[in-house]
Structure formats: C-alpha cells, structure tokens
C-alpha cells in the first residue's frame, strides 16, 4: 500500500515537473544577464562612480521600455574598490556563479588587465571602460573597450601642434601606467607628424615639486610647445609649477585632465591650456550639424536631471559600452557568447557619447582622432577650438 | 586519547584537515573554490604574522611588503628570466629571508610605536620600488604571470589549486604549532611578557625576535609566490600599506596568540566582502559594523574568547 502511495506521489511530482519545465521554456521571461565590476570606491572612484550611475540609470530605463527584444536586463554590479585582486575575484564570481552573458566594466587599466586572462579562458564578451591602449593592442578575441586611448590623444595633440606651425616639443611625463604609455606613444608617433622631441623629462608619482625638470625644459633652446603626459594630482602640480616659472609656450595635456576638478585645482594656471576631449564636454558649443550633438545633449540632460551633479566624460564610457552590447545582442538575436562577440566586432557607425565607433577584427576600440575635439581652457571653462 | 584529541596540536590539526577535506562537497562551483583558495593563502600569511605579533608581541605594519616581494620574485624570475617556478619561489623566499634577517636587527631594537613606524617604512619602501621600477615590474599597472609547474606537471583547475593550498595550510599550521609548543615558543612568550625578565632568565631576546621575524617574512613570501601563479597577475597593491593593514586586522579579529585564530580571521575577512555584496552601497557600512561589534564584544579576538567561553561552560 505504502509503495503504491509512493508511486502515485512520484507520478504527480514528475507530471508537475514536466509542466514547470514546459512553462519555463517560454523565452519571453528569461532575462539578459549583464555583469559589471567598477571602482565605485578607492583611488579611481571619481571614474567608477559616474560609470555605475550611468549603467544603473540606463538599465532601468531600458527595462521600463520593455527590455531588449522582450527580455528584461538583469544587471549584477560589484564594487572592485580599485583593487585588481578583488576585480579578478568578482569576475570569477560573475562568470562561475552569476553566469552572466556579457561583462562590462573594469574602470582602471590594472583591473582590466587582471581579468583579461579570465574572460579569454571563459569565452565571454567583455567591454572595458579603461584607458590604456594595451587592452586592445594586440587585439584579444573577447576583449573590447570604449574610452579613447593615450595614443589617440597624442595623435590629436600632434595634429594641433602641426596645424599651428610648430614642430619642436618638450615632453614631460609621470610614472603611472597611462603616463608611461602616453610618453612611449609621444616618442613613437613623433616621426610620423614631423615632430622633434627636444626635451624629455619625467617625475615620480605624487611629487609635490616639479620645478627642477621644468627649469631644464625652460632652458632648452628652441622649444615651441609643451606636452604633459599624466592626470590627477600630478597634472595639477605640473600645471602650477609651469605657470610659476613663467613659461609661456603652448601647453598641452591629455584627455585625462578633461575634468572640472582639474580646472578647479589649477585655477589661473590652466588658462589657455589645450587638451583633446570627448565632444560631450562641449556639447552645447558643437555645431548643429555635428553627429554627436543631439546624443551628447540628451545624455547630459538625463544624467544631470537624475543625479543632480555635473557630467564627466567617464559616464559616457559606460553608456557607450552598454549600448554597443545591447546593439550586438539585438543583432545576434540571442545571448550566445560567440554570436554576440562577432556582432560587437561588427559594430559600425554607432554614434556614441565618446565618438563614432567602427570596430573590426583588427580594431576592438573603433575610434579615430575625429572622436576627439580640441578644447582650450578659458575663464575656467571649456572652449571648443575649430 | 580523549585528552590528546582535545589539544590544538592533534585534535585541532585533525579537525582542520577534516574541514579542508570535506569542504569541496559543499562548494557549488568554481567561484567558491576560488574564495577558499584566497582564504588559505591569507591564512598562511596570517599564521606567520601571528607568531610575530601574537606570540612575540612585536608589531609589523609592513608584512604585505614581504608578500609582494615573494609575488614579484616569482613573477619576474619566471616571466622575464624563464626560471622554473619552484626555483623562483625558493629564491624569492631565500631573498626575503635574507632581507628580513638584515633589517631585523636594527628594526627589532625599536619598541612600540617606533617598531610600528620602522616596519611601516620598510613596507612602503618596498611598495614604492615595485611601483617605480616600471621596466622590471610593469609599474602601477602590474604584470602578467605564467602558471605554476613542478617537474613538468602543471596544476590546472581550481580543485587542484585547492588541494595544493589546503596542503600548504596544514603544513604551515603544523609548523607553527610545533614552534609555539617548543622551547622557542616559550621563549617568545617570555619576550612578550617582559623582555627584561626574559633576558634575566637567559633568553637571548634579540636572537628570538630576529628568528620569528624571518620565519614570518618567509611564510608571507611563499604565500605571495603561490598567489601570483594562481591568479596569473600581480600589481603593486599586493605590497601596499592597505594590504598590510588587512593582514593585521585578520590576525587581531581572529585572536592574537592563536594559530587557529589567524585561520578564522583570514576566512572571515576574505569571505565577508563577497557575502556583503547584497548590501550594495552600504557594504562598507556593514563591514565596519561587524568589525566594531567583534572588537567591542570579543576584544581578545574570536577564537580565544570562544574557546574560553566553552572551557568555562564545560568546567
């Protein structure tokens, strides 16, 4: 008797199970799992925080509008605390435990490079928000990125220096990864733009006085322009010392200094400085014909309305990463990793906040120097240079 | 027999071995193995640090420096100079041992805040060198490291790494327990109690301080070497001040002068950030609240306080 009872229960249960599987099989409800790890706290929080806010805002908006191809987005976001070890640990969690379909994030180059072997091994598409060129040069099968590289910045600056009829450049660089990479590019690209580097000085991370190096540059004959490779507090010190020594040469810095914090920190010392920046920074000044103007203004309005703080270009990296990923998933018609990866690689003419992306198997960034505009700091604000 | 099982040396070691052996059955996927491997490596460093801090009463705020040196020795010697990983690991440990021996005498002359400052300075110097020597170390962005291999055998997959780290942890605990319960351990505790009294009783204070400093530095270096081969990447933050503080916190949380306390402290502080992710923006707040709670209600650390409570109850 008991046995018959047991069999009946088993039968009912298995019938139920079949029903459940049948119901669960409908594709409409299955969410698209996007995993992200960002430096929301720690040294790079000024980059990671706007990235997180941007991702959360746009994922919520897309879900309100019905999701992607009828599927909602499920965002799993971890704070790496600007620590490469934690980043690697969280990416393992995203891959193994959360089983995400695609990974966006990696605020700094160090965090990104630490997880590259993991995503390559697991075969999951990964779009990084970090700066340095090494992330996509050489090309790695599963790794893409959205921000401009230091190499692009150097190209844009050299174009501007040549356009002003100058050729003799004094180079000054810090010791961070971005700084070194920028300096290397400055040397390698000099020949192509017929530029001669007549002085080449470096400083340590966190130096509070750079006048010795700048004095040497001041005493070098024939210098026509000054290029500084670095960002953050070091860039502020360099700009201040430069002004204190009364140097009046055209002063160029990278897009790493394209933030209101830098302008506020340097004050008078950054007046007249030129730097390449994303169009977003001067969205209102762009001509109406500029393809990015509408999007940039919209992004600025959305972000400032939601978070009540001024935009930085860093949130734009996250916006572009998210939109490129969603575009690829829509075109692929599934979240199959290989199909999505192939579609990301085929991204063409995507008009983003950071520029117009044209990716290819040889180029996992897809931006050129046209994605930068040259701006000059005037009266503590950005002025677009034609 | 029962009495023997109740001692930390046999019973405790056996219990730890059983936990390590049974744990894989409860770990649902590779991510959990990964966390456990990190727990094991942190525990190895903390056991060494606890010998120095808990037993000998000497503070070190620069222990991540030794971990970082071990990590970078393995990274540089295997990647740039093509050394076999095991040789790089041993060379790194020997190098760190020599460095610790060389600096131990001047540093161990210091006491209290001055000793803290001395070790802090050493850790920061190591961290600065690793950050600034870009051509050698890859600078602030770090460098990739190849996998481990012993005589042509390459461990791959988290399960293999789990057994390797688990074995190393057991070995470290066994070694540390033997040190603690030997004349050396008694001498260390005498030094902790009162250096003058220890000296009067014929304990060579400087000798024992140097010895325990070198042992703990070498343990940190070995853990660092294994860590980089497992993770496959190293950045200067491994040698940074924050990491040193994390290690000290693990030791204090688990319990000073308790080998198993170091293991428990490492386990809690390594898994807590992963467990608290559901708090999102309030993660750090939750973390701080737990730390404060433990320090207020269990000031001697988790393991010694719990052990005492159990002892009082059974009595």
Can you offer a commentary on this structure?
The complex is a heterodimer of chains A (386) and B (315). By secondary structure, chain A is α/β, with parallel strands linked by helices. Chain A has two domains: 31-149 and 293-367, 3-Layer(aba) Sandwich (Rossmann fold), CATH 3.40.50.2300; 151-284 and 372-385, Response regulator (Rossmann fold, 3-Layer(aba) Sandwich), CATH 3.40.50. Helix content of chain A is 44%, strand content 17%. The longest helix of chain A is centred in the N-terminal third of the chain and has 23 residues, at 2-24. With 315 residues, chain B is mostly helical. Chain B has 15 helices and two strands. Chain B has a two-stranded antiparallel sheet. The A-B interface holds A 41, 77-79, 83-86, 88-89, 92-93, 95-97, 109-110, 113-114, 117, 132, 134, 175-177, 180, 204-205 and B 28-32, 34-35, 38, 131-132, 134, 139-142, 144, 231-233, 235, 237-238, 273-274, 277, 280, 283-284.
Key features of this structure:
heterodimer, A: 386 residues, alpha/beta, Rossmann fold, five-stranded parallel β-sheet, globular, B: 315 residues, mainly alpha, two-stranded antiparallel ribbon, 15 helices
């Amino acid at each position: 008797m008991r046995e018959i009872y047991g069999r009946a229960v088993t039968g009912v249960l298995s019938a139920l199970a079949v029903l459940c599987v049948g119901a669960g099989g409908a594709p409409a409800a299955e969410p698209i799992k996007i995993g992200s790890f960002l430096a929301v706290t720690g040294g790079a929080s000024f980059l990671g925080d706007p990235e997180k806010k941007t991702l959360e805002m746009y994922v919520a908006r897309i879900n309100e509008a019905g999701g992607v191809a009828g599927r909602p987005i499920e965002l799993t976001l971890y704070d790496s605390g600007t620590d490469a070890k934690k980043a690697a640990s969280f990416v393992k969690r995203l891959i193994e435990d959360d089983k995400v379909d695609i990974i966006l994030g990696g605020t700094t180059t160090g965090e990104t490079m630490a997880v590259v072997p993991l995503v390559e091994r697991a075969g999951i598409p990964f779009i990084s928000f970090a700066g340095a060129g090494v992330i996509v040069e050489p090309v790695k099968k599963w790794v893409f990125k959205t921000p401009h590289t230091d190499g692009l910045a150097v190209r844009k600056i050299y174009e501007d220096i040549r356009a002003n009829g100058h050729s003799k450049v004094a180079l000054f660089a810090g010791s961070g990864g971005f700084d070194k990479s920028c300096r290397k590019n400055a040397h390698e690209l000099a020949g192509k733009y017929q530029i001669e580097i007549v002085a080449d000085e470096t400083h340590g991370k966190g130096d509070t006085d750079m006048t010795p190096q700048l004095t040497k540059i001041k005493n070098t004959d024939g210098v026509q322009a000054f290029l500084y490779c670095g960002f953050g507090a070091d860039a502020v010190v360099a700009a201040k010392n430069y002004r204190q020594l009364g140097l009046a040469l055209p002063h160029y810095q990278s897009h790493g200094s394209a933030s209101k914090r830098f302008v506020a920190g340097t004050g008078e010392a950054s007046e007249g400085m030129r730097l390449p920046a994303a169009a977003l920074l001067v969205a209102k000044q762009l001509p109406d014909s500029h393809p990015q103007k509408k999007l940039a203004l919209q992004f600025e309005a959305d972000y400032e309305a939601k978070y009540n703080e001024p935009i930085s270009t860093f949130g734009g990296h996250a916006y572009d990463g998210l939109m490129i990923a969603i575009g690829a998933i829509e075109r692929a018609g599934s979240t199959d990793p290989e199909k999505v990866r192939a579609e990301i690689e085929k991204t063409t003419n995507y008009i983003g906040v950071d520029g117009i992306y044209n990716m290819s198997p040889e180029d996992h960034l897809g931006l050129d120097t046209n994605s930068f505009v040259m701006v000059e700091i005037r009266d503590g604000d950005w002025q677009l240079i034609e | 027999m029962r009495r023997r099982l109740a001692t930390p040396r046999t019973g405790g070691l056996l219990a730890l071995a059983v936990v390590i052996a049974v744990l894989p059955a409860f770990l649902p996927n590779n991510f959990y193995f990964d966390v456990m491997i990190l727990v094991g490596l942190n525990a190895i460093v903390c056991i060494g640090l606890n010998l120095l801090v808990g037993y000998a009463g000497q503070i070190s705020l620069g222990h991540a420096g030794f971990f970082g040196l071990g990590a970078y020795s393995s990274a540089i010697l295997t990647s740039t100079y093509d050394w076999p990983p095991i040789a790089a690991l041993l060379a790194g440990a020997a190098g760190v041992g020599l460095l610790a021996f060389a600096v131990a005498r001047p540093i161990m002359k210091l006491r209290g805040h001055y000793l803290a400052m001395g070790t802090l300075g050493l850790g920061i110097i190591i961290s600065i060198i690793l950050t600034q020597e870009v051509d050698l170390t890859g600078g602030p962005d770090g460098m990739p490291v190849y996998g481990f291999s012993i005589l042509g055998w390459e461990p791959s997959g988290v399960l293999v790494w789990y057994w390797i780290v688990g074995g190393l942890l057991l070995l470290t605990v066994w070694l540390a327990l033997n040190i603690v319960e030997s004349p050396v351990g008694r001498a260390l505790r005498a030094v902790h109690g009162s250096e003058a009294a220890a000296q009067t009783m014929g304990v060579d204070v400087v000798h024992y301080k140097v010895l325990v400093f070198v042992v703990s530095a070498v343990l940190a270096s070995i853990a660092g070497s294994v860590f980089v081969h497992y993770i496959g990447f190293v950045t200067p933050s491994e040698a940074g001040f924050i990491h040193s503080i994390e290690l000290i916190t693990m030791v204090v949380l688990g319990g000073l002068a308790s080998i198993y306390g170091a293991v428990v402290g490492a386990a809690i502080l390594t898994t807590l950030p992963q467990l608290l992710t559901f708090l999102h923006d309030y993660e750090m707040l939750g973390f701080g609240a737990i730390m404060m709670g433990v320090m207020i209600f269990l000031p001697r650390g988790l393991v010694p306080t719990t052990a005492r409570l159990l002892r009082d109850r059974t009595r």
